[in-house]
Design a protein that fits this description.
The chain has 13 helices and eight strands. The chain is α/β, with parallel strands linked by helices.
Length: 303
Amino acid sequence: MISHLLLRAAQNKKLENLVSGHPLTRGLVSRYVAGVSCEEAIRVARQMKSEGIDVSLDLLGEQVEDLAESSVATDQYIETVHAIAEQAPGSTVSVKLSQLGIAVDPQACAKNLDRLLEAAEEVGVLVEVDMEHSSVGRPTLETFREALPRHPNTRVAIQAAMRRTPEDLESFTDIKPRLRLVKGAYDEPLSRALRDRKEITAQYLFLADWVLAHCPDPAFGTHDDVCIEHAKKAAAAAGVGKRDFEFQMLYGVRRDVQRQLVREGYRVRVYVPFGTQWYPYLMRRMAERPANLLFFLRSVVGR
């Protein structure tokens, strides 16, 4: 119930304005968001790299309303790519196709994505395509599929909660993509997605086995101890080395686990968000882990 309410809150503009303008939320934001500028995010990336943790920079933003906005967003992503190449090599960039115009004009979005991927390849930076709400999920997957033959090193996120995910994975026959398996962080109808947490976890474990058996360099986006331990054991059973897949987590979440995985010899990549549009992102993070809500409330009341 709490998770559902938080996901609804992520779409509430009045609540966003109230929370965003509250000075006492700054402590919370700084815990989970690297800053408002790319320069601040790069500093975090370099610090984490010194600790043996790789980074994927995540430019926060929501769905654009016209193609002019999508071009601006694409330029911002390309600027981020160049900053990574110059100042934080080894980092990747995470892109939301809703910012590149997928809901406005899928063909224009595909051109924007190609422009970004070409710019990234020129400087040796890898790109990870986020999977968003199901309203843009199908076009996102198809746009990724079209780009895959030209940019096979691009990774896409797949949500275990979505009912179509097993079918989607089986549909990649010619080229097996690099995948990031996540549970899913959007408020979806029961007809499209599993809602029970135990069912979602069970689906995640099943798909983890499939991904390890069929896809190159898989990534497991999870903070769940059950999923982490399963991925370790499943990889070992499949003969997949510790450096041949990676765990991906979110900035500010379970830092102790991130460091422990590095000590054990696993690859770890942390998604480091930056930008001014942090509110929807933060609400979804709390929905994934409602225990974060207590920290949020304490920040608001100044305790």
